[in-house]
Structures are given as structure tokens and as C-alpha cells.
């Protein structure tokens, strides 16, 4: 299925990786995770995150409270993405495997910004291909917009009414959430699975 997605359109989204560059500036950390943090969030880590209500790939309603029962790595993308999303979701899945092999109870989450095409059934196929414990989330346009706004995740849909193979520009950060802390860090896509796992483990150990 991913091979089908990959030929739908040319790779356009990768050029948009800097969409939220203002979020990440090298500098000192807030909270108790200074030894782990490689970036600083404008306004502090408390400026990102918040309540949301979405639908998972099984059709069940999920909120931020019910989701965050263990360390969670969230990524905003869409299943029909021709290149970046499968690569990033796979990177997060590999990092999850590394962490689980080391005894960490990690959960990868993929939030779709494409409610028109990404039904729970489509997401079920996508996340099951990526990782057996990956959770796919979708919802109404308003629900997704609210979740994206909470995490400062940028996306813009192109020519949705005229082309069934439309592309979506979107940011490509991954967000780490920890029970009892909520959002704690954002990661760029240029990290390897090993480096991502190492950084996530530091936050979990420090929590």
C-alpha cells in the first residue's frame, strides 16, 4: 500500500521541514530535563500541548488523557503522503523498537491531518504496516485543527476539491509526551532512530 501512495505525487513535502523552525532554538532548558534537552521551545515547553479529542484507527474516541498512559511520540502527517511521512513514521517505529528492547514502554502515535481520505480503516492499514503498537488518530477537520494548533503543527491542504491525489504541506516534528508531564520535547526529522531513542530514553529516565 505504501508503494501505491509513493507514486501518487512527486516528493514535495520535504521542502517544508522548516515550517516550525521558530519552535526550536539552541539554548538552556526549562523544567528538570536540562541534561536531555537539545532545543528550547519559544515560550517554554508549557506553550505546547493541550486537550484534544480524536478517533483512533479502531473507531474509538481518544482524548489526550486516555492516550497518555505511557511515554508517547506523536507525529502529524497523512497516510497518502508520497515520501516524508512513511520515512518519518518508520524512523519513529524503529526508535520505538530500540526503546522497547531496552525495557522502555514506548508508544508511537500518528495523527492525520487529512480527515477526508484518512478514515480509521485507512489509518489501520498504515499504522499496522509501521508498528504493531502505533496508534493512528483522525477526526473532524475542527478536531484535527485544534490538536495541530495545540502542538503548533503546521499543515495546508492543496487543491482538495479539484484533485483526489492532492498533497498536504506539513511540518515534520515529532513530539515527546510523558505521563505526569505532558509535552517535554520536540525532535527534528534528521535524527537517526538510534539518536532519537537515546534522547527519548534520557527524558524517560529523568521523569
UniProtKB/TrEMBL annotation:
One of its GO terms (molecular function) is metal ion binding. Keywords: Copper, Disulfide bond, Membrane, Metal-binding, Transmembrane, Transmembrane helix. Cu cation binds at residues 81, 85, 170. The chain crosses the membrane at residues 6-25. The keyword Metal-binding applies. It comes from the Bacteria. This is SCO family protein. It comes from Rhabdonatronobacter sediminivivens.
